[in-house]
Known about the structure:
The structure is a single chain. Strands 1, 2, 3, 4, 5, 6, 7, 8, 9 and 10 form a 10-stranded antiparallel beta sheet that branches. The protein has 3 helices and 10 strands, in the order αααββββββββββ. The N and C termini lie far apart (44 Å). The longest helix is centred in the N-terminal third of the chain and has 22 residues, at 32-53. The protein is globular, with a radius of gyration of 16 Å. The chain is of the alpha+beta class.
Amino acid sequence: MTFFPIRTHFDPLPCSPFTKLVFGFCQKLKCNYGTRLCTKLKIIDKIFLCIITGKPVKSLPELLREYNLPPGLFPNNIISYEFDETKAKLVVYLPSSCELTFKDSSVIRYATRVKAILMRGKLTSIEGMKTKMLVWVKVTNVAVEGYRSDKVWFTAGVKKSRPRCAYETPLDATRVEEF
């Protein structure tokens, strides 16, 4: 059996439904102890998943990089994510609706749950992501055309390119009242 080192800081990794339930309950109570408990449960979940599958669980930025997407496409402060490789379905959970301003001054707003289909170089059928144009517009697709492409294409009503370098580093998002 292979042992994988466990990081002790908060990892944006997949977690069990029980951990999500505990985190959601403690978040409603605004319980700081629950956040620490949830972090410990995530570590236990990670160990359990490593033992069951025999392979390490990737962080969300690692998963995005593996699929040729910029690792900073989602905020650094996610709760967890789920990825079903057979259906290519990705679900990202965030603690609250939040907003992220990138290096190129583009702004993306995220719901508490973002769903999408993850394929090589593409994130399609996105639900729970908006971008600021003149008004907030729903983002439906994000794509990188080639492995060495320096552009990320966002489809939000119209298709618009943005520099890939602006999305290379995951950043902490700012909480917003409503999505």
